[in-house]
Amino acid sequence: MTDNKKLTLFQRAALAWKVLNSGSPYSMEDFDRDVRRSIRGGTTHAGVNVSEDSALKYVTVYACARILAETIGSLPLFVYREKPSGGSDKARDHPLYWLLHDEPNEEMDSLTLRETISGHMALSGNGYGILQHNRRGQVIDIYPWDWHAIRPDRDKETRELFYWITDRGKEERLPVEKVLHVHLWGPDGIVGYSPIRIAREAVGLGLAATEFAARFYGQGMNMGGVLEHPLSLSDKAYERLRKSLEEEGAGLANSWRPLILEEGMKYNRIPMPLKDAQFIEQQKFNRDEICALFRVPPHMVANLERSTHNNTEHQSLEFIMYTMLPWIKRWEQAINRRLFTRFEREQGHYCKFNLSGLLRGDAKSRAEALHIMRQDGIINADEWREMEEMNPQEGGTGKVYLINGNMMPVEEAAKNKARQNSTGGE
Predict the structure, then answer these.
(1) DSSP H or E stretch at residue 349
(2) If DSSP codes are grouped into helix, strand and coil, which group holds residue 163?
(3) Cβ contacts of residue 308 below 8 Å, gap of 6+?
């Protein structure tokens, strides 16, 4: 039995209500289950229950979450080591290089791990990974964890942060060192807001419209009218008419089939309700709202009404700058803070996404950018070829850095000017 003295007023009320209405004892496990159920979903004014899981049934939500997750998952991720003389090199010998770039655990590749955690993050505002360490304190495995089954908490005495995880029905307490937590903006800097809960009404409206359209075509009377009879029908005649309408008038297969009427019965057509409710316009507006929620350009979810070649290119650049860059920084800082030891960070180790991976689809723009860097002496031929996954030039000729011959230091230009003045411009 539950100790009522340890319950809050709300918990006591819930306990009393359950006992009075069900006649069976109500445990704290039942209470926790009901609370979690109410938190994970709620009924909207559109009459649809919306949760992070049910929201995926709305195609725009699924498309936006998929875009964010797949973009993070597809970006190249490397481990670097800073050089004492400046700059940095890829730390291919570091254990995390293989985990982050190729295989974080024995069951999945790096893309799948980051895609899974980012998908949870897009829907719930929080993505979690469980870390396993060796005796040196180095991470050797990273596994994604269902966001439903993990929650942060604080120790009442020490105020130390830790995580409760549920594994096969059992709760286990984990220190923060064993949890990779990537989250969106939130109220306390620890847990991120769920976009689905914030925009529950908008998502519910989209789900309701989708269900309405499906039911309209699946169950609706496509003849769209009212049958009028001068007298009342007998039960047998009424049943025969109802059965005939259901078998021959409902469903897509029976659309616009002629209807045979008897005994002076008249058929009056009614206008299509979707037109009166501006159904199509509402669906378009709701789709744009969901895109704004996830900050995904409408053209990326197949909404090309206001898209042109020029503004689509700018929207794609804005997607990288204003949508993906904050996500990338969250990932990088969470990994640097949680996966590297303090000693490794002091030695200059860090991880970084390669944003040029987002430009691979535009070969011309990528080639022009690399050409400018080549002319300005930023990269040499071998570095360019490496970015394009080509072998270095033979003989070491590709290691030479070149600059445009018309360029010179400002100091040299000033000396030339002074020299011309001293000679009278001769």
Answers:
(1) strand 349-353
(2) strand
(3) none
d(CA 358, CA 4): 58
Query: Which strand (E) or helix (H) includes residue 145?
Result: strand 139-145
Look up residue 116 and give its two tokens. 């899974």
Q: Are 112 and 105 in contact (CB under 8 A)?
A: no
Q: Mean pLDDT in the chain? A: 81
Where do we find the tokens 């495995």?
A: 141
Mean pLDDT of 47-65: 92
Query: Considering only CA atoms, which of 347, 410, 398, 276 is closest in space to residue 79?
Result: 347
Residue with tokens 């900050």: 295
Beta strands in 168-273 (DSSP E): 170-175, 179-183, 225-228, 266-269
396: helix, coil or strand? Answer: helix
**Could you tell me if residue 340 is left (phi over 0), alpha (psi between -120 and 50 degrees) or otherwise beta?**
beta
CA–CA gap between residue 185 and residue 371 (Å, rounded): 38
| pLDDT tens sequence across 186-220 | 999 999 999 999 999 999 988 988 888 787 777 65
Q: What is d(CA 326, CA 193) in angstroms, rounded to the nearest whole number?
A: 15
The three-class DSSP label of residue 83 is coil
pTM of the model: 0.72
Residue 186 to residue 173: CA distance in whole angstroms: 23
CA distances from 237 to 249, 257, 258 (A): 17, 21, 19
The Cα–Cα gap between 172 and 58 comes to 34
Question: Exposed/middle/buried for 315, CB within 10 Å: 0-12, 13-18, 19+?
Answer: middle
Rounded to an integer, what distance in angstroms lies between the CA atom of residue 405 and that of residue 234?
A: 100
